[in-house]
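Whiteboard transcription, Tuesday session. T.W. wrote the structure tokens on the left side:
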């Protein structure tokens, strides 16, 4: 009986701690020039199952109409508290924008590389950009 209890206790201790969960709605407020309109607000919807993540980024492409542009995230992966994925950005010649984010409390701090004129644009293609996503309430 003692051996059974010890085995169960060791088995429970061997289970991994609950993984970080990125699922939910996140909001990214982009800083920098707004090109004559309000500062862009980007919505990131994530659905995590295990260590894989699906979702989309939705931002406004036309301040006068408010028409959203949804961009699917691809190859979303979680390792510990880090999320990685990429999206295709640009209109005439799409390029990949790579996102690497670290979760801390209710924020994800992203470093974005590549891309053209996607979320957080304004930097030259290839220059890393820093974005912060906050969990929507």
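and on the right, the sequence the group agreed on:
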């Amino acid at each position: 009986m003692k051996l059974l209890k010890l085995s169960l206790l060791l088995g429970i201790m061997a289970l991994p701690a609950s993984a970080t969960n990125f699922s939910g709605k996140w909001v990214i407020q982009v800083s920098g020039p707004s090109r004559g309109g309000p500062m862009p607000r980007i919505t990131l919807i994530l659905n995590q199952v295990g260590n894989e993540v699906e979702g989309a980024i939705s931002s406004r492409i036309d301040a006068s109409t408010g028409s959203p542009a949804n961009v699917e995230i691809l190859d979303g992966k979680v390792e510990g508290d880090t999320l990685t994925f990429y999206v295709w950005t640009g209109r005439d010649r799409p390029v990949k924008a790579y996102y690497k984010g670290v979760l801390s409390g209710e924020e994800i701090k992203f470093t974005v590389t590549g891309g053209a004129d996607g979320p957080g644009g304004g930097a030259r293609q290839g220059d890393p950009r820093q974005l912060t996503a906050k969990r929507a309430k």
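Someone added at the bottom: The first helix runs from residue 2 to 14.
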